[in-house]
Write a structure and sequence with these properties.
This protein is mostly helical. It has 6 helices and 2 strands, in the order H-H-H-E-E-H-H-H. Strands 1-2 form a two-stranded antiparallel sheet. Helix 2 packs parallel to helix 5. The radius of gyration is 18 Å and the shape is elongated. The two termini are 19 Å apart.
C-alpha cells in the first residue's frame, strides 16, 4: 500500500494542473450540494426535486474528486490507473484499498458537513424530525455508494 500512496504523491506532482482543476470542480459540486442541503423541506413540497439535485451534485463531486486517483492522461487519452500500475508489484486489491481510503475520507468529511448544515437549517425552520434526519443521512450513504461503484467500474 505504501507503493501505491507514493505513486499517488508523484502523480499529484506530475499532473498538478489537472489535480488542481479537478479539486476545484469537486469543491464546486460539493458546495452546491451543501447549499441545497441548507434548504429546509417538508415531505410534501418538492422533496424529490431537492433529493435529485442533491444526489446529482454530490455524485459529481465524488466522481471529480476520485477521478484524480482513477485515471491518468497518456498521449491525449485517458488511461485507467489499473492499466498504468499493471506492471508494478502491487495488486488490484491494494490499489482499490487505497482508493477506498481516499473515498471514505472525503465521504466522511462532506457527509458530516452536509448533515450538519441540513440539521441546523431544519432546527431553525422548526421542521426537524425523523424524515429530516433520514434525508440528511442518505446524503453520505449515496455519495459513498456512487464512489464505490466508480472505483470498481474504472
Amino acid at each position: 500500500m505504501d507503493k501505491v500512496k507514493k505513486f499517488d504523491e508523484e502523480l499529484k506532482i506530475i499532473y498538478k494542473d489537472n489535480v488542481f482543476f479537478q479539486k476545484v470542480l469537486s469543491i464546486l459540486f460539493f458546495g452546491l450540494s451543501i447549499l441545497i442541503m441548507s434548504i429546509p423541506f417538508e415531505l410534501e413540497d418538492g422533496f424529490w426535486i431537492y433529493l435529485l439535485q442533491r444526489n446529482y451534485m454530490s455524485a459529481l463531486g465524488v466522481i471529480q474528486y476520485m477521478q484524480v486517483y482513477m485515471t491518468v492522461t497518456e498521449n491525449n487519452k485517458r488511461v485507467s490507473i489499473y492499466k498504468r500500475l499493471a506492471y508494478m508489484p502491487v495488486t488490484k486489491a491494494e490499489i482499490r484499498k487505497v482508493r477506498y481510503g481516499y473515498l471514505n475520507r472525503i465521504c466522511w468529511r462532506m457527509g458530516a458537513a452536509m448533515i450538519a448544515v441540513h440539521q441546523i437549517s431544519s432546527l431553525l425552520n422548526h421542521s426537524f424530525g425523523m424524515a429530516s434526519v433520514l434525508y440528511a443521512a442518505s446524503c453520505a450513504a449515496f455519495m459513498w455508494g456512487v464512489g464505490m461503484i466508480y472505483v470498481c467500474a474504472v
